[in-house]
Amino acid sequence: MRKTRYAAVAIAAAAALTLSACGSESGSDSGSTEGAGEKIRIGIKFDQPGLGFKDGSEYTGFDVDVAKYVANELGYPEDRIEFISSPSAQRENMLENDQLDMIFATYSITDTRKEKVAFAGPYFVAGQDLLVPSDSDISGPEDLDGKNLCSVTGSTSAQKIKDNYAAGVNLLEQPSYAECVTAMQGGSIDAVTTDDIILAGLASTDANKGKFKVVGNTFSEENYGVGLPKEGGIVKCEDINAAITKMIDDGAWEEAIKKNTEGADYTFNAELNPPKMDACA
Asked: How confident is the model over 146-164, as pLDDT tens digits?
């Protein structure tokens, strides 16, 4: 159990402090335990370019950068982070089953999810938008009548446009957003829809740079939060919120967005971002 493991760490730390107090003949800090503690387990996406992406042993993306910053503020440098794949459908179960300590994975805060898990943040406010070819004249969902719109199988994003904006749009589904973008590059798709920063991440890949643009006309709000166990977690919501606020204030937050969406012709919604932290429950 996690509690047992943390007790062991505490005992080891106390012993190390005792040794440090005794010192050594050479005067060196032989009792230092920096980097030797238990790792923190952070859930991210492994297949979302620009947000959470695993390439060999490297992890990149905005979610990853925020996670690293927050973890470091909590006392966990990068070498004490264990990144774990957290598919959307498994996030609640992974937190409930003590497989993770935190989740940074485009995890929208909703009342339904709050029944099972706790949230810190938000660290970003996304909105549903459109990705189109760079020379497209589509400027919003109202322009999609008679057009081919792609989203991921099972997603409600495309249906929302058909129901509320463009009844005559032709909905097409693919297993992933990357496949939607490939189809658009081939000319069979006019637009792809999901959260704006996810679209920006797709457009910023080396294969797609300069070919597509995010329209920049969001029509929903998705508050990306840090998922936490409902109870018994090792980190506190208040500490995470303080770390996110510090990241925003020192400029690292905006720099992380720019770095991970470079080449996507994307600007985040400045009316909603940087976000204000929700009160911790």
From this structure: 999 999 987 889 999 999 9
Mean predicted lDDT score pLDDT of the chain: 88
How far apart, in whole angstroms, are the C-alpha atoms of residue 118 and residue 109?
Answer: 9
| Alpha carbons 157 and 150: distance in angstroms, whole number | 9
Closest C-alpha among 109, 131, 278, 101 to residue 204: 131
Q: How far apart are the first and last CA of the chain?
A: 25
Distance CA 281, CA 276 (A): 15
Phi/psi zone of residue 54: left (φ > 0), alpha (ψ -120 to 50 degrees), beta? beta
Task: With cut-offs at 50, 70 and 90, classify the pLDDT of residue 186.
Answer: very high
> d(Cα 256, Cα 60) in Å, to the nearest integer?
10
**What gap in Å lies between CA 61 and CA 53, rounded to an integer?**
6
Kindly report, residue by residue over 135-148, the tens digit of the pLDDT.
999 999 999 999 99
Angstrom distance (rounded) from CA 82 to CA 105: 14
Question: Are 104 and 94 contacting, i.e. CB atoms less than 8 angstroms apart?
Answer: no
- The per-residue pLDDT for range 39-74, each reduced to its tens digit, is 999 999 999 999 999 999 999 999 999 999 999 999
Give the per-residue SS3 of 15-33: HHHHHHHHCCCCCCCCCCC
DSSP 3-state assignment of 113?
helix
| Residue 251 burial (C-beta neighbours within 10 Å; 0-12, 13-18, 19+) | exposed
**pLDDT, tens digit, 9 for 90 and up, residues 104-119:** 999 999 999 999 999 9
Cis peptide before 275 (omega within 30 of 0): no
Spell 222-235 as b/e; 16+ CB within 10 A means b: bbbbbbbbeeebbb
Distance CA 173, CA 256 (A): 31
212 vs 12, more confident: 212
